[in-house]
Amino acid sequence: MKEEGAMQITGTTKNLGVMGWPIAHSLSPIIQNAAIAAAGLDYVYMALPVEPEDLEAAVIGLRVSHFRGFNVTIPHKQNILHCLEEVDEDAAIIGAVNTVAIDEDFLITGYNTDVTGFLMGLEEKAFDPRGKNVVILGAGGAAHAVLWGLVKRGAARVTLAVRNPEKAQKVVAHFAPHVTETELRVVDWTASAYRGVLSAADLLVNTTPLGMLPKLDGMPPVDWEALRNEALVYDVIYTPAETRLLREAREHGHDIQNGETMLVGQGAASFELWTGVKPDFEVMRKALRQALEERNKKRPLAAFCIS
């Protein structure tokens, strides 16, 4: 007998999943299956462990197995570009895919919904990037999606504050051909010029892993006396819910945002691409929080990838 609220998988159930290596840590199955149940859809979402050398074969296998789509996480976000027939503009410019959709004609298309998730976090705080000055801490993969989202929304200036300026200059060079209105800059966060950059910032975004396990006391350098009180401080880390960066920002009077909305938002955007149905965002957020609470009981303040 089927329990109330339980998922029933049949021969008509459509398959979705998240591909990565490793993938056992992923909370996406919990979040997405909660959304599926709330929407009353005949889908199921599962974890798909795929080693790097098996990526191309796995994509072919999911396609011929009639999967309707899947998420992509570390270490496949860049390499999967070579396995797809079509890639949307965001994913092509960012150079990374986190969502793949397979239509009824087996056309396989890559998307990057991390951009959507990041911007949803800004919208939740009623922050419009248009004409604003933004400082991004870090220049890794997460920074690419954040930077492109800010460019799309018309930020006046985006500065990458980093400890490796040479790496960040390569990121700027990658995006430069696609940028017309936004000024892109790089600053060494150990240099004196960094203080001046902070003093002009309307938004400070941390895309580094500093503040996650095992160094919960870590954070990028920020001179709180230089950063204007009106500046919003956004950390894409979602666990712990309040990193040291956000705690210090709050203590200095700043409005803060963590990565929870970004995580749920990118998943919600993926869900809609696959099903054509807008999911219940709050159901997904509640599922995430419950899953984190249960996991943290076993492994306090555990940190996980956006996947």
Description:
The chain has 307 residues and is an alpha/beta fold. It contains ten helices and twelve strands. It has helices at 28-39, 55-64, 89-94, 114-124, 141-152, 165-175, 193-199, 244-251, 260-275, 281-298; strands spanning 14-20, 43-49, 69-72, 86-87, 99-102, 108-111, 133-137, 157-162, 183-188, 203-206, 232-235, 256-257. The chain has a six-stranded mixed β-sheet. The protein has a six-stranded parallel β-sheet with strand order 9-8-7-10-11-12, with helices on both faces. Helix 1 (28-39) packs across helix 9. The longest helix has 18 residues, at 281-298. The radius of gyration is 20 Å and the shape is globular. 45% of the residues are buried. Mean pLDDT is 94; it is low at 302-307.
Count of helical regions? 10
Poorly predicted ranges: 302-307
Characterize the overall form: globular
Q: Write down the Rg.
A: 20 Å
In terms of structural class, how would the helical and strand content be classed? Answer: alpha/beta
| Proportion of residues in helical segments | 25-40%
How many angstroms does the end-to-end distance come to?
Answer: 33 Å
Topology, number of strands: 12
